[in-house]
Amino acid sequence: MSSATIAAIRFGYGLSAGQPAPGDAGALSAALAAPDAMAARFPVTGMAGVFPLIREYNQARRASRQDEPGGEDRFQAARRNLRLTMLEGLRAQLMRAVLAPDGMRERLHAFWSDHFTVRAKGVRFIAAPSAFAEDAIRPHITGSFPAMLRAAVTHPAMLAYLDQNRSIGPDSPAGQRQGAGLNENLAREVLELHTLGVDGGYAQGDVTQFAELLTGLTFDVQEGFLFRPRWAEPGAETVLGTRYGGAERARLDEVFAALDDIALHPATARHLARKLAVHFVSDRPDPDLVATLAAAYTAGGGALMPVYEALLAHPAAWVLPFAKARQPWDFMVASLRALGATEAALAGLGYPELRKGIRQPLAHMGQPYQAPPGPDGWPEEAEAWITPPALAERIGWAMALAGEYSAALPDPRAFVETALGGTASETLLGAVRAAESREAAVALVLASAEFNRR
Amino acid sequence: MPSAPLSRRHFLRGATLAGCSAAAWPLMSHVTLAAAPGDHRLVVIILRGAMDGLDALRPVGDPDFATLRAASLTGDAPALPLDGFFALHPDMGGLMPLWQKGELAFAHAVATPYRDRRSHFDGQDILEAGTGMDLAPDQVRGGWLNRMIQSVPGMTSETAYAVGRSGLKVIAGDAPVTQWSPDTRVELDDQTQRLLERIYEDDPLFHAAGNEAFDLLARADAGMMDDGDAAGAAALAEFAAARLNEEARIAAFSISGWDTHRNQKGVLGRRLRGLSAALLALRDGLGDAWGQTTVLAMTEFGRTARENGTNGTDHGTGSALIMAGGALRGGRVYGAWPGLAAADLYQERDLLPTADVRAYAAWAMRGLYGLERTLLEASVFPGLDMGTDPGILL
Predict the structure, then answer these.
(1) How far apart are CA B302 and CA A211, in angstroms?
(2) Which pLDDT band, with edges at 50, 70 and 90, does B169 fall under?
(3) Which of A313, B71, B122, B163 is the most exposed place for a label (fewest CB within 10 A)?
(4) Which InterPro entries match (chain A) (predicted)?
(5) Predicted pLDDT at A407
(6) Are residues B241 and B97 in the same domain?
(7) Phi and psi at residue A158, in whole multiples of 5°?
(8) Chain A residue at shortest CA distance from B217
C-alpha cells in the first residue's frame, strides 16, 4: 500500500473521489506549513460575531417577558438566529473537512477542539463552541501550544463552560462585598486535562492555588473577555512550586506566566505526546513514538509543527493495520469524500438536511454534535464507538447516503479502490461483487470494517 | 468520478434508528444485565459526576452542619427528618414511604480507596472496576460485577440497549417533529445483511457488534431514552425491571449529571428527583420480586464540605451510598459518623470516609449469592477488607 494512502486515511479524512491523495510525510508537512486556505474559503463566525446575537437574544427575551408588542416574535427570531449560526458553523466545518486537499489540518482542528472541550450551556451559547474553535484553536493549530492554551483558557466559551466567570477571590474586594468565592472547576481541568494530565504530579494544593490565581478571568456580553483585578484573590499563589503574582494590583500577565510555565512542564509534553499518538496512531501507542513526540515538543519550546513532523517521520506512525475506529464525524466526512460530494452540493444543504442528515445521525452514532459527555472530550478506544446501536446507525446512514447518489453511483469495483486505496480485504471485494445493486455495494463498502477504521 | 448533488428531498433518510439515543450516550444509557441462579435481584446504579452526599442525606444533627451548609446552597425547602440525626433532601420526598416500610437505607461517609486527585474519570474507573489504588486505572480490566459473574457458576451477562418509547421530543432537539417521517427509513435487505455479516467476520470488534446491530435495524421504529431527566431515569429503571422479571437477576446502569459546581440546589434537586423516580419505577415494575431486591446507588466520590463561591461544591472525598429494596434491613443510616468540625474533615475540606463503599457491595453479594469472603476480598474486590458485617440484608 502506498504511503499516500496511509497518510490520507490515518492523518486525514480519507481518500477523495474529487482530488488526489496528499502524498507522503513531506507533502503533509508542506500542506500544514502553507496558509490556511480552507478557513479563508469557508468562514465560521467567531465570538465577536456571536456576542451581538446573544445581546439581541437577551434584549428580545426581556421584551417578550414584558409583553412588549412584537416581543415574542423578536425573541423567537433571536433564538433562531443563534441556532442557524450554529448550523452554519457545522456546514462550514463539514465543507472544510470534505473539500480540503490536506485533511490533516482539519483532523488537528478536531483534535485540539476536543482537547479543549467546551459545551454550550443553553441556547444563548449554542454558537459558542464553533466560535471557540475558530478564535482559540484554529489560529494556533500550526503555531504554539502555549499560545493556544492562553487563548483557550481566556475564551468566553471556556470561561462559561467551566464556571470560571463566576469564580471570585473570597478575600478580593468583590468577594468581600458579595460574599462570593472560588470555583475550582477550570483550574482543575486545565491541570488534569489540558496540560499536565492526571498523573502529572500536581496536588490538591496546586489546584486550589491555581484557582486563586485564575480569579479575575471573566467576560461580559458587551466587552467579551475581561480581566477584573477586583475579583482576583490578593497575594501570591504557588503553583507547582513557583510563585506567581503578589503585586498590589493583580495582572493578567501573572496568569499568562503560570500558563506558559505549565504548558512547558515535562508532564505536559508527555501528556500531549501520548494524546496525539493515541488519537492518530493507536489506542496503545509505541512508547518510543510518545517519547519522540514529547522530546520534539520540549526542544521546540511548545511549537507544534516540530511535533507533527516528528510524528510523520516516525516509523511507528506508518505501521499497518489501521487499528483505530473512525469516530462518527470522521466516518461521515470520509464517506462524503469517497463519494466526491461537491462544494455546490454541500453548500446547498439546508438547515433541515443538516439536522436530519448530519446532526441527528451523529448523535445516534454516539457523538452528539459539540456535546461530548464531559470536559475530557470524546473517548478514543474503538470499543467505545463500535457498539451495536452505533454500528446500526452507521449501516443505515451508509445505505441512505448510497441512496442519495443512486442516479450517479460509481462502478462499485472502482469505488472500493477510490475509498480504500487497496486496503480492502478479499472478503470485501467478494461481497461487493455479490451485492444485488450498485447502491447496496457502495453501502457495503462504507459500512465495512475496513472503511470504519483508520 | 460521478458526484450527484445531495438532494434536499432524500438526505433526511440518514436518521435510521428513529431516535434511539441509547447510542447518543454509549457509556451511559445502556443497561448491563446478568442471569443468576435463585430469586435475588441486585441493581447497581452508578451516579456519575460525584453526588454531594452531604446534601442528599443531610446530617442536620451535627453541630457544624448548619454553618457549612447555608440556604444559598441547599435552598429553602426543609429537609425531611429520618432518624433525628439525618434528614433527607426535599426532592427525595417520594421515597419517604420506602423509608417508613424499611425499604430504604443509607451508608454515610463512604468512599472507594480513590484519594486526593479527585478526577471524575479515574474515580469512576476505580468505582466500577472495584479495585484499590494499586493498579493504574487503565490497567484495571473488567468491572467488579463482571468478576462476580465469572466467579459464580450459572451466571452469564449481556449488555442490552434500553430502547423505549418515551420522549421523542428530546432527541428531535431543535428539529421540528413534524418533519420526522419514519416511512422513509432504510430497509436492510437479507442479501446485504448476509454480505455484511460475512465482511464483519474478519474483524472481532465489528463481528461482536454486528449481530445486535442488525437486530436493532430490524426493529428500528423504537423510541428513545434520555437518562438525564426524571422520565429518562425512570424509563431506564422500567426497562431494567422488565428484564429482571424475566431471566435477568442483576442489572447495572448509570445516571449522569451530579457534578454540581454551580447552582447546586437546582441541579441536584433535578437529579435526585430522577433517581427517586428510578427507584420507584424499579419497585413498581418488580412487583412481588421487590421483596427479593437490593439496589445500590453509588458515586465516584463526594464533594467539598463547604460551599464554593458559585452556590455549588467542588470535588471532594466521602459521600453517601443509597440503598433500596425489600431485601434490605432499611429505615436506618449505616456507618460511623466522622463529624464535620474542621479537624474532622479529610484534608480540612471533605467529608472523611470511615468505610469503604465496596465493603457494602461485598456484604450484599455475600448475602445474596453466598459468595465466600475470601473470593470477594481476593478476586471481586482485590485488596478489600470487608470488616465486620454491617447487616444490611434481612
Answers:
(1) 19
(2) very low
(3) B71
(4) DUF1800
(5) 64
(6) yes
(7) -75, -40
(8) A392
